[in-house]
Amino acid sequence: MFFSCLTTVFVILPLNHLEAVQLKEVKLGETVVLKCNISFNDIHWLKMSEGRPMALMVTSLKHNGELSVVWNYNESRFEGFLEKQMTGLRIAHVSTSDLGTYYCASLYQKHLDFDKGVQLYTSQQSKEEPFDQVKGLSNGLSLHYQVFAGVLGLSLLGMLLAVSVVHMKTRTK
Questions:
Q1: What is the tens place of the pLDDT at every residue in 34-81?
Q2: Which of 36, 24, 56, 48 is nearest to 134 (CA)?
Q3: In sequence order, what are the beta bridge partners of 42?
Q4: d(CA 144, CA 41)
Q5: Are strands 20-26 and 100-108 parallel, antiparallel or unpaired?
């Protein structure tokens, strides 16, 4: 039992941090299209900016195959679409506040599965700046997950210790 707890703490709990693997240059004021390579019914669109995730939209596939927008942070700027069995996010009138890293994710067996991220940047930024920004965001996100995993692991060990102590005190000879 102790080995299974250690395995959970040191093998399963550490989460991989999210990274943007694609850079996409955008022009301010234009429309940009992002596509999601995950094929589940419910798709969540998130934006990472300044180390904080922001939910933008949740879409769902209806039984007839049409896309339904379940929730939208800003209907005048964000639009979900379905094209060739692939869901996407259309951002109208891109502004500097839209620059950041975008992810699509699906809820599968009580956890979010993320697609690879897309970093939006303008030609006014240097091409090295988005990479530095992505590393900073992913390191900050990773640190939050590591702290969460550590606290969860210590709680699990504390619970195991408490159960062991109660068992030792209450067992009959």
A1: 999 887 778 999 999 888 889 999 999 888 888 899 999 999 999 999
A2: 48
A3: 60
A4: 28
A5: unpaired
